């Protein structure tokens, strides 16, 4: 990751430089001249500036790249370019530029640190940290906190929570989504059990509706993949 991130950053800076160069006209012999052609402001470069394609006052926009690690175990990979090298002695380091990654690793964070994020990203990171033990408890402890649909979909893909939800005007209720998921799991298990006992589809549908107070369409949707 240190090498990949360093490459991405340098490519970004190279793109900025190329765009700056394209913004200047180089067909004038008048050094430092500012002209207007067809309503467009054009700046002429000095001979020295012409060689680099940049003016002395030109500045690049800083690029900050973050690495988000989705594992529930602490990050054990290199965190800097130096970590990937064998440097014979300390004196050499002043000639070798280092590059370190901005790592966000949930497993390396204390639970009280997730609150410093200003979006639902903090909750998502906390769930990822506890995905192998008590992610359900983390979600239920939110007290019906609502998150945006993108965060819910992100957790379903990364942690495979299989949350069941319909987004309302206020977002996705995490606790309700977890309760719906648990209810679906119970219904699916009941369907499989009744199928093993040889129950007919109609008996299964009626029993599920009576036990869990769901619609016929809901049960049929769960039965379809069971047939496949």
Short description:
The protein has 8 helices and 6 strands. By secondary structure, the protein is mainly alpha-helical.
Overview of this protein structure:
By secondary structure, this protein is mainly α. The protein has helices spanning 2-22, 47-52, 121-129, 135-140, 149-158, 174-196, 201-212, 216-227, and strands at 34-37, 40-43, 66-68, 102-104, 146-147, 172-173. 43% of the residues lie in helices and 8% in strands. The strands form 3 sheets. The chain has a two-stranded antiparallel sheet with strand order 1-2. Strand 1 and strand 2 form a beta hairpin. It starts with a helix and ends with a helix.
Per-chain topology:
Elements: H1 2-22, E1 34-37, E2 40-43, H2 47-52, E3 66-68, E4 102-104, H3 121-129, H4 135-140, E5 146-147, H5 149-158, E6 172-173, H6 174-196, H7 201-212, H8 216-227
Parallel strand pairs: 3-4
Antiparallel strand pairs: 1-2, 5-6
């Amino acid at each position: 990751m240190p090498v990949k991130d360093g490459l991405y950053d340098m490519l970004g800076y190279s793109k900025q430089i190329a765009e700056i160069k394209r913004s200047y006209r180089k067909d004038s012999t008048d050094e430092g001249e500012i002209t207007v052609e067809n309503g467009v402001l054009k700046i002429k470069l000095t001979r020295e500036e012409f060689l680099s394609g940049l003016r002395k006052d030109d500045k690049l926009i800083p690029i900050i790249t973050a690495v988000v690690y989705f594992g529930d175990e602490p990050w054990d990979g290199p965190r800097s370019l130096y970590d990937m090298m064998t440097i014979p002695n300390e004196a050499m380091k002043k000639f070798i530029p280092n590059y370190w990654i901005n790592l966000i690793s949930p497993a390396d964070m204390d639970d009280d640190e997730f609150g410093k994020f200003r979006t639902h990203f903090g909750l998502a990171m906390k769930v990822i940290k506890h995905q192998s033990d008590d992610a359900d408890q983390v979600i239920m402890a939110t007290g019906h906190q609502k998150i945006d649909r993108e965060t819910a979909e992100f957790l379903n893909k990364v942690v495979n929570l299989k949350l069941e939800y319909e987004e309302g005007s206020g977002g996705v209720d995490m606790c309700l989504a977890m309760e719906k998921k648990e209810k679906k799991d119970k219904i699916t298990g009941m369907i499989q059990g009744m199928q093993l006992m040889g129950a007919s589809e109609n008996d299964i549908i009626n029993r599920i509706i009576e036990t869990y107070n769901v619609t016929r369409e809901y049960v049929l949707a769960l039965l379809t993949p069971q047939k496949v």
